[in-house]
Amino acid sequence: MGVVIPLEDNKNKQASVKPLVDLTLSDMERVNQLILSKAGSDVQMIPEVANHLISSGGKRLRPMLTLAAASMFGYEGDGHIKLATSVEFMHTATLLHDDVVDESDLRRGKSTARTIWGNQASVLVGDFLLGQAFRMMVDVGSIDALDVLSTAASVIAEGEVLQLSVAKNMETTEDDYLQIIRAKTAALFAAASEVGPIVAGGSKADRNALKSYGTNLGLAFQLVDDVLDYGGTSSDLGKNVGDDFREGKITLPVILSYRRGTPQDRAFWREAIEGGASDAANLEKALGLIRRYGGLTDTIARAKHYGTIARDALAPLPASPWKSALVEVIDFCIDRVS
Amino acid sequence: MGVVIPLEDNKNKQASVKPLVDLTLSDMERVNQLILSKAGSDVQMIPEVANHLISSGGKRLRPMLTLAAASMFGYEGDGHIKLATSVEFMHTATLLHDDVVDESDLRRGKSTARTIWGNQASVLVGDFLLGQAFRMMVDVGSIDALDVLSTAASVIAEGEVLQLSVAKNMETTEDDYLQIIRAKTAALFAAASEVGPIVAGGSKADRNALKSYGTNLGLAFQLVDDVLDYGGTSSDLGKNVGDDFREGKITLPVILSYRRGTPQDRAFWREAIEGGASDAANLEKALGLIRRYGGLTDTIARAKHYGTIARDALAPLPASPWKSALVEVIDFCIDRVS
Question: What three-state secondary structure class fits A106?
Answer without folding.
Answer: strand
